[in-house]
Design a protein that fits this description.
This protein has eleven helices and nine strands. It is of the alpha/beta class. The protein is globular. About 45% of the residues are buried. Bound molecules: phosphoric acid mono(formamide)ester.
Length: about 325
């Protein structure tokens, strides 16, 4: 198995094609562990992983914890609300104090864009960005690539991806675009103009405000929720109007390619960005993405701190 040369995973932009494929191949090799009755291997025995989450999370925090535990690491969970940041301690001091307890990886989610990059300048142990503000969510983008490869059987060729929703506030979009550009996908982002940054084309994607036109023959459709918690002004006249134009319905889905994959990073707001019958229909890969999140996070921990190939056995 190949290794990777970097110490932190802060941005999907930093990953070369070979590195992306190495992470996906490693994740593939770890997937089988989660199908066993005894879901545990000794790969990271004696290693310590700290989950430091300053924002809510269901999928990311839990899958990092399960990933670490399935590889026998000691996993510690700290939430912002239970940490001494509530007493005024700053992010860097918090991380430096945790580092004094000798963890091998610090996994960080924070509301501020750039928080993980800042910590990487002050901390020696590996840092994985588990979502920083509207900036990036690289492990989500990697699990999305694993899901697409699993179902399309290849990442080669012009895979046509349409990403729909609150583009401006989505860290998932940014990380996905970086990986998809590196892999040569054709990406179109769709949403109301108020939710698409004006310089979006500079990221090498096409922009559309018309969902029905954009999803014509799409191979992958990624739906996003509206991130009300990150909006400081009202960008919509009403949710009902938004749904009228941008909800992925069964009728609209017929315009896409016949084996289109529908993905969504979660959490889903049923009936707003995606209809229930699409969410639970045959094209939906939403729960596959969650399953793949564990394998991707196992792979990253292994590649960052796991050491030699022998520890895989
Ligand atoms: N996709 C994702 O980041 O979900 P959570 O916020 O539940 O971790």
């Amino acid at each position: 198995m190949t290794t990777i040369q970097f110490k932190h995973l802060l941005s999907a932009k930093d990953l070369s094609r070979d590195e992306i494929l190495t992470i996906l191949d490693t994740a593939d090799s770890f997937k089988e562990i989660s199908t066993r009755t005894i879901k545990k291997v000794p790969t990271l025995r004696g290693r310590t992983v700290v989950n430091l989450f300053f924002e809510p999370s269901t999928r990311t925090r839990t899958s990092f914890e399960i990933a670490g535990k399935r590889m026998s690491a000691d996993v510690i969970n700290i939430s912002g609300s239970s940490s001494s940041t509530t007493k005024g301690e700053g992010l860097i001091d918090t991380a430096r104090n945790l580092e004094a307890m000798a963890p091998d990886i610090l996994i960080v989610r924070h509301a501020s864009a750039g928080a993980c990059n800042l910590l990487a300048e002050h901390i020696d142990c590996s840092i994985i960005n588990a979502g920083d503000g509207t900036h990036e969510h690289p492990t989500q983008a990697l699990l999305d690539m694993l899901t697409i490869r699993e179902h399309k059987k290849t990442l080669d060729g012009p895979i046509r991806v349409v990403i729909v929703g609150d583009i401006a506030h989505s860290r998932v979009v940014r990380s996905n675009i970086y990986l998809m550009n590196t892999l040569g996908f054709q990406v179109t982002v769709v949403g109301p103009s108020t939710m698409i940054p004006i310089d979006m084309e500079k990221l090498g994607v096409q922009v559309s405000n018309n969902l029905e036109e954009a999803i014509q023959d799409a191979d992958v459709i990624m739906m996003l929720r509206i991130q009300m918690e990150r909006q400081n002004k009202n960008l919509l006249s009403s949710l009902r109007e938004y749904s009228n134009y941008f909800c992925l319905t069964k009728e609209r889905l017929k315009r896409a390619s016949k084996d289109v994959l529908v993905i969504h990073p979660g959490p889903v707001n049923r009936g707003i960005e995606i209809a229930l019958d699409v969410m639970q229909g045959p094209h939906s890969m939403i729960l596959d993405q969650v399953t793949n999140g564990i394998a991707i996070r196992m792979a990253l921990m292994y590649l960052l701190i796991g050491g030699s190939n022998e520890s895989m056995d």
